[in-house]
Structure formats: C-alpha cells, structure tokens
Amino acid sequence: MSRERESAEVLVGQSAPDGDPTKAPGAPTTPVGTRSPSITSARGPTGSSSGSSFTPLQDFSGTITPSDLHFEVHHAGVPAIDPAKHTLLIHGLVDKPLLFSLADLKRFPQVTRVYFIECAGNGVLGWGDGLFGKPNPGLTPQQLAGLTSNSEWTGVPLKIVLDEAGVSRRAKWFLAEGGDACLMARSIPLEKAYDDALIVWAQNGEALRPAQGFPMRLLLPGWEGSANVKWLRRLELGTRPWMTRWETATYTDPLANGTARQFSFEMDARSVITTPAHPETITRGWRQISGLAWSGRGKIARVEISTDSGQTWSRARLEEPVRSKAHTRFTHMWDWKGEETIIYSRATDETGYVQPTRAQLIRVRGAGTQYHFNPIYGWRVLPNGRVFFFGAT
User: Fold this and answer.
1) Among 70-74, 230-234, 250-254, 275-279, where is mean pLDDT lowest?
2) Residue 145 half-sphere exposure, CB side, CA atoms within 13 Å?
3) pLDDT digits (tens, 9 = 90+) for 62-121
4) CATH domain 87-120+149-251 topology
5) Which fold has domain 270-390?
6) CA distances (Å), 237 to each of 94, 137, 168, in order?
7) Cα 6–Cα 12–Cα 13 angle in degrees, nearest 5
8) How far apart are CA 325 and CA 300, in angstroms?
9) What's the pTM?
C-alpha cells in the first residue's frame, strides 16, 4: 500500500495499527450525526404497520427521549405526506370554516413546552403477560413501561387557531382526525382546547419525525396517547362526542361491575425504576437507584423508594426542573449488602393522588381492565445480584 493511500484511509477514521485513537486522526465531519457503534439503543418490536414499538427507557439519562427512539403506536402504518400539500381543515360549529397549511400555522405566535405522551395501554405486559396471565419476570423497563416518551414540543396553542375560525357557543366537543389510512379520529371536550392543547410541528428542536405525526399533530398534555392525533388533517366542532370506533370498540375501560369507563383521558401518576432492573446483575455496595415518574394531572410531588420489599419507604430525590405533565427523573442511594429483596417506587402527584398497588387497582377496576395500568412495580434482587421483574404488588 502506498504511503499516500495509507494516509488517506487514516484521514477517514481508520484506527491506528495498535488501536490507540490518539495515534491517528479521526473521522471527518458528516451531514448527520450518528451514535457510537457501541451504543445499541433501539425500539422494539418493529416491522408491523398496526402495532406498538417500545422506547428503551433503561438506556436514557435525564428526562428527554431522543426523537428517533420515541415510542410508536400505529393503526395503519406511517403515511408518506407531502408537507407542501398537507392542510388542516377547521369546520363544523364555527363562524367561518378555515383551511390552514403548515406555513399558515407557523405565522401564529409559537410556544415550546416539554410534555410526555403515553399510550393508554402502557404497562399491559406487566399487567397480564406470561404463563396463566401472570407478569413475566423477564420483563425489562422497556417492555414494562416503554410506551411513554418525553419531548420538547413546538407549535401553536390550539385556542389561538380556533379563535380565528370563531367557535360557536353551542360547541362543546371537537373531532380530531388524522391523515393516515384508517383516518384515526377522537372526540375531545372543547375545554381541553382552551386549556393547554397545542398543534405542534417540531419535536426536540427539529421537524416532527414521520412516525410522530409529520407535518403536524395534536398535542393534549397529560392525556392518553391516542387522543394526541398524528398527521392532523381535520378539526370539526360539534355539540357531542362522535363515538368513533376509537372511543367505543377500543380505548374504553371495562370495569368489574360490567360497565366501562369511556373518555378516561387523563393518565394517572406512575413511576418505574429503570436501574437496577432486568437483565442487570448488580454487585454489593453503594449504588444509585434511578427511574422516571410522571402524571397527567400535573407535577410529581414526591417519589418514595422501598429497598426492603415494601416494609419501609424513603423519599427519593427529584431532579430539577420538575415540570407539569412531563417525566421527572428520581434517584436514591442504596447500600446493597447481598440480601434477597424487592425494590419498589411509588409516585404521588401534586393533586395528592398516590400510585396504587396492583391489588388496589384490581379492586377499583377489576382484573379485566385493558387500559390505564399504573400499579406500583417491583424488581426482585436475588443474592447473586440478578434482577427480575416483580408485579404482584
């Protein structure tokens, strides 16, 4: 090999012969940054146009979810939308129907906020997966609670856009319809539009990814994920709910008395320890317990940790800032001495709501509930340091 060719290969990032990165120039600049090959974070499972893909919560620091690892739930795949042709229609009980392009929306005063989104079915594997419907001890934080993600969103308050159209006093609800192949649609109380609802076009400082609703989506802070309609194409104002298939056949909660909860939008307070967790193996001595807590009703007020199978509880440290309707990182130092134990986290939000045990949730909802699972989760630590999920709280 010629000296010139050898030098050229080193300039594009070829490792020095002895593997010492200080002995050769690194790789050049690139159009788009990538993660180190040693970092293998990924959503999963993938490949379905009608299904879910979970966020790897255990791989994160802080509270913001990388845009490319935000969880996915689709009902008819991810549509390929030309932003130059996409429009948002506002009609129904309004003074003047309006049609907005993305450029039109961007002319309004924009805001940037941090909020979580969570699928109403988050936690289903920890509720009834495994043999005889019992939770599988081999669940990871990703599988257990990975249908939630937390991002910085940029857009326009929905109330500003609705005021342009002039909402009739008779209007009490609006229908939000998406531009995917199934025309996903949800009925939303108008009060939410005039509270904190947004139409967003950016996530974490860049345009929405297609899987997250590019070029625009509805964002309803603290409310179940399906109501945050992606690929937003139509808002219709009316007097009552539309009773779409997405709020009748699905996204309703069967209860123990044979009835069902409908329009149970708010996501209840919950927490999950992300480390130590399965499949980790820990060693004796001091270590940090860390995890995430969130509530659709506002801020997390406190998180408590038990390291002795629920006998005693200690208050965890909440990392600042603690935001309303956003993920909050909690930490707690623990000196593990090699005993078998179960570690738990328990969240309380600013309304006083306390994350329930599985038994408490079953008493209220029944064992057949299908959405809004938020029981206290545990991780069983064996004397050899191996960690397994424990859901029988």
Assistant:
1) 250-254
2) 28
3) 999 999 999 999 999 999 999 999 999 999 999 999 999 999 999 999 999 999 999 999
4) Sulfite Oxidase; Chain A, domain 2 (3.90.420)
5) Immunoglobulin-like (2.60.40)
6) 7, 47, 8
7) 95
8) 8
9) 0.92
